[in-house]
Amino acid sequence: xxxxxxxxxxxxxxxxTPVSLSTIRRAIIRCDLCPRLRTHCTRIAQEKxxxxxxxxxxxxxxxxxxxxxxxxxxxxxxxxxxxxxxTGRVFTGDGSGDFLMSAMHSAGFANIPxxxxxxxxxxxxxxxxxxxxxxAPPANKPTxxxxxxxxxxxxAELAALSNIKIVVALGRIAFDTYWRVMRSWGIRPSPKPAFxxxxxxxxxxxxxxxxxxxxxxxxxxxxxxxxxxxxxIFRTARKLIVSTAAT
Length: 247
Known about the structure:
The strands form two sheets. Strands 3-5-4-6-8-7 form a six-stranded mixed sheet. The chain has a two-stranded antiparallel sheet with strand order 1-2. Helix 1 packs antiparallel against helix 5 and helix 4 packs across helix 8. Strand 1 and strand 2 (about 15) form a beta hairpin. It has helices at about 20-30, 35-45, 85, 95-105, 145-160, 170-185, 215-220, 225-245; strands at about 10, 15, 65, 70-75, 125-130, 165-170, 200, 210. It has about 250 residues and is α/β, with parallel strands linked by helices.
């Protein structure tokens, strides 16, 4: 397999043969399928932000992070240019990471309510965080082809995370990407509901999907997404996990 190809699990009759998360992580980090994104991330890592001018930026595709036995999967949009593209860990190093982690901490999915850097002591409990796109896109707007190029990475992580019961999609792109994954796996949820914050959908044969607005500054600074709104999403996820375990 060429080193720059996404790690796609082998499929047979919609049953996927998983590979290890460490193998998936290596495949993601070395992926170079999207020249526009790689050029942008490299440039940002060289130019840096004034507040981080003494730091060494990660500047590469960002793999998922969390508990390998997780029952909750959180899917975001993409690394932030000076967040995960700097720190090398998804939803870490910017305001959206702290906003998300505060909500996850309140529902018992994280040990601390912030995500600042790789040595901050953050641990996820029963949760794994990933993204639809693994490289920071210009203006936070990946192209359709770039999203499709990254989809096999998400599929590979899902195959490796065999305990997933709940998926929280943060934003429309994450929602649409996960919907395509379900279809590619032979889970055919139909009709597709319109994306709305708080949407709950349980397809036949797949994890329950919960939709949420993305914790971007555009949403949190305008009040479109408030801390109680996001905390409610993760309280719902916790209740569903508990109820699933009880049956």
